[in-house]
Amino acid sequence: MIEDIGKAPIAPQDVPRGRPNCGVVALAHFTDQPYARVERFIGKRRSSRWRGVSNRLDYAAFFARIGLPVVRGRGKDHGEGETLLQWVNHHAQPGRRYMVITTGHAQVVYDGKVLDQHDGEMVPVERFHWKRKRVRSWYMVDGEEA
Questions:
Q1: pLDDT tens for residues 56-93?
Q2: Type and span of the H or E element at 14
Q3: What is the pTM assigned to this prediction?
Q4: Are the CB atoms for 121 and 54 separated by under 8 Å?
Q5: Alpha helices in the chain (DSSP H)
Q6: In this structure, what are the phi and psi dihedrals at residue 78, rounded to the nearest 5 degrees?
């Protein structure tokens, strides 16, 4: 539920494995929405051959659809270009949930842990398989109290 968004994310149980769908999965984790709802919404915006690839325009449209006010951070002042490990250690605030877009991947960060479609559970960033990917941008809920 959106009112619980400041808490640690729980992996949706309906997430399929082995697909190029990290953005859809991250969006479901970040917003606490069922994977099927997010996939259906983004799939309607794409062609019939769509398999799961998504981008910031899809994310913005979904945030608007569910009425979730978000802040998008990007640029050097917001950690763009740092590795995910560096970004978590320098920019992520405890108790705040982030959807972080890295080079070719998307994941959710909360309290120094990362959640994506590969692990299905929160993993400390130091043990995350793609901790060295470079941050491109991130999202957090606007007005959320840490």
A1: 999 999 999 999 999 999 999 899 999 999 999 999 99
A2: none
A3: 0.88
A4: no
A5: 22-31, 35-44, 56-66, 84-90
A6: -110, 15
Q: What is the mean pLDDT of residues 110-138?
A: 92
Of 45, 38, 37, 40, the C-alpha closest to 24 is 38
Q: How far apart are CA 84 and CA 82, in angstroms?
A: 6
Joined tokens for residue 26:
């991250």
| Structure tokens that stand for 59 in this block | 């994310």
What class has domain 21-141? alpha beta
Give residue limits of the domains in the chain.
21-141
- Between CA 19 and CA 79 the distance in angstroms is 28
Strands (E), 4-134: 70-73, 97-102, 105-110, 113-115, 123-124
- The residue written with tokens 């859809």 in the block is 24
Residue type present at position 114 = V
